[in-house]
Design goal:
With 271 residues, the protein is mainly α. Helix content is 58%, strand content 1%.
């Protein structure tokens, strides 16, 4: 159950026509994963075989927004709750929320990074020759592990040739897209998808076999794109948390931070 549910979160198979089984495009995805899967099932397609990477990224982002919101609220509660017992409770809550934030970003950022790997967005996730327009891949004379390029590209090649300092140096400055997350994610993933042919062209030229400067630069840029996207979305999540809601019934974080609402332990739900 664990693998079958989570493995498809790492990818989305998009065809050469930029469509997902002739149903959707990255620009026109259904609002929810449930609606996305319903459309696939009506065509007799098993959703888990198609992947759902955009939804994994959006869902993870929204969870981090909520995590930040609770941390912000608890920080105020630790200082300004009505009773000493409540203030102590919120102080412990804030520490717990810090651990939850680290954990949730750790899980979610893996999916964001997957969105920088062109093979995670394409039908050509480990080769091209079984499709129309075969290019020249897999090329003759390449070692077997490079002919099946996916694992080699994102694993051994990175470990042998790319450093964290190179990735950091290639990261772009923060960009506020002034858009919602369900608009930011498709733009990010479309850029990645556009690089599937250049990736295989590098393979065909022996770039990964010979660890050429061109192949190294391409790989560092892809890793930097994933790191940049994760950093930008975390920044966006922090900003969004300022007007998110916590507790039950819902309380706006802005009202807590302004002092309009004074928290008690029951503010998060009396149960």
């Amino acid at each position: 159950v664990h693998d079958r549910e989570r493995d498809p979160a790492h990818f989305l198979d998009v065809g050469d026509d930029d469509k997902i089984n002739e149903l959707y495009t990255l620009d026109l995805l259904p609002a929810t994963r449930g609606d996305f899967e319903k459309g696939l099932r009506l065509k007799g397609i098993e959703p888990n075989d198609q992947g759902y990477l955009p939804y994994a990224i959006i869902d993870g982002y929204q969870q981090v927004v909520k995590d930040f919101a609770y941390w912000r609220a608890s920080k105020v509660g630790a200082k300004k709750a009505k009773t000493k017992a409540d203030r102590e409770w919120f102080a412990q809550e804030m520490k717990m929320r810090e651990q939850i934030i680290i954990r949730d970003i750790g899980v979610w950022s893996h999916y964001v990074a997957d969105g920088s790997q062109p093979q995670h967005l394409s039908d050509h996730y480990n080769g091209w020759d079984q499709y129309p327009d075969p290019m020249t891949y897999p090329p003759p004379g390449q070692p077997l592990e490079i002919r099946g390029i996916h694992a080699f590209f994102e694993g051994p090649f990175v470990r042998a040739n790319i450093t964290a300092a190179q990735v950091k140096a290639a990261m772009a400055p923060y960009t506020d897209c002034t858009c919602k997350i369900d608009q930011r994610v498709p733009v990010y993933l479309k850029t990645t998808l556009s690089l599937i042919r250049p990736l295989y062209q590098l393979v065909a030229k022996g770039g990964f076999r010979d660890a050429t400067a061109e192949a190294k630069a391409f790989t560092a840029q892809r890793l930097a794109a994933g790191a940049t996207a994760a950093r930008d979305m975390i920044e966006d999540a922090w900003k969004a948390s300022a007007t998110a809601s916590v507790g039950y019934p819902n309380i706006n974080v802005a009202d807590i931070e302004s002092g309009k609402v004074i928290l008690t332990r029951d503010s998060y739900g009396s149960d």
